[in-house]
Write a structure and sequence with these properties.
Distance between the termini: 40 Å
Number of helices: 0
Strand content: over 45%
Largest sheet: 7 strands, mixed
Shape: globular
Number of strands: 11
Oligomer: single chain
Structural class: mainly beta
Radius of gyration: 13 Å
Helix content: under 10%
Order of helices and strands: EEEEEEEEEEE
């Protein structure tokens, strides 16, 4: 069993930055090979934003390469998504994800990029 709790969403102007956090409880993230961030807008499927494996390999969606950075802090048992140069099209609900026998998702955090 893995519980994921996201935080850090909010309203930001285009060009601004936000850092999302995903705290894992009930299990150390050292035991979780893949941790990832997805996002979803109304009427659309959830899409992968970035993923991070325990060995340090990362994958990014083309739309966020060079602007977003995913990282892990094992001591804090937390995964982060640093989002810079935000655009209105980044507006979405962002979900933390991991796989441990089955899919686990956080509750989601809203990110709105607007003037």
């Amino acid at each position: 069993q893995v519980q994921l709790v996201e935080s850090g969403g909010g309203l930001v102007q285009p060009g601004g930055s936000l850092r999302l956090s995903c705290a894992a409880s009930t299990r150390s993230i050292l035991s979780l090979n893949v941790m990832a961030w997805y996002r979803q807008t109304p009427g659309n499927k959830r899409e992968l934003v970035a993923s991070h494996t325990r060995s340090g390999n990362t994958i990014y969606a083309d739309s966020v390469k060079g602007r977003f950075t995913i990282s892990r802090d094992n001591a804090q048992n937390t995964v982060y998504l640093q989002m810079n140069s935000l655009k209105p099209e980044d507006t979405a609900v962002y979900y933390c994800y991991t796989l441990f026998g089955r899919d686990y998702w956080g509750q989601g955090t809203q990110v709105t990029v607007s003037l």
